[in-house]
Amino acid sequence: MKKTKLLLAPLLVIMGLQAEPTKTTDTLEESKIKTGTTIGHYAKPGAPIDMTYHSSTVDNNETSDINITLTTTAQTGTMNVMLTFDEQLTQVSDVEQNLSFEITPEQKEYSINLQVSSLEDGLYYIRLLTKIDQGTASQLRAFAVPVYIGENPQPKTKSSKIMKAMNGENISVSKAVETIKVLEDKE
User: Fold this and answer.
1) In angstroms, rounded to a whole number, what is the distance separating the alpha carbons of residues 83 and 66?
2) What is residue 185's DSSP assignment?
3) 113 with 92: CB under 8 angstroms?
4) Model confidence pLDDT, tens digit, residues 71-119
């Protein structure tokens, strides 16, 4: 029995060395889903809202699925969301561009699912201006979700939105909402 094991062991080792693992011809495609989040990152003071997104990379004239989740620590109030799209980006789904969510203590996440497409390759953005209105006070926070169209998408810049300061630094002009309160002097 011991001699049989000694004779079979080298034979099995040689057979194992000559055996070739099966090769698959399928190559795993690189993930075409881009994800991002603001949770755990520095944010300027503003509305207590964080955003997480999943954006699928597609070729031009194909539909990209964009899934956005807004998370808030607010217990009550109304969350208003204004969506704007880059000019070359076409919204395929029929999601309103002005959304409103009633905040409840039981629900902390609010989803927005969009579908967009573009005829041109490029890196485009969906911009969200969020506002939490809690009666007497309202707070704002802005987000941008990237949309990747085509191979190696590059950002599209518009010269009309970029200005130069006197020192030569580029300044980007963006939409904003401003609240002004007039304080009365008590005499």
Assistant:
1) 13
2) P
3) no
4) 998 888 899 999 999 999 999 999 999 999 999 999 999 999 999 999 9
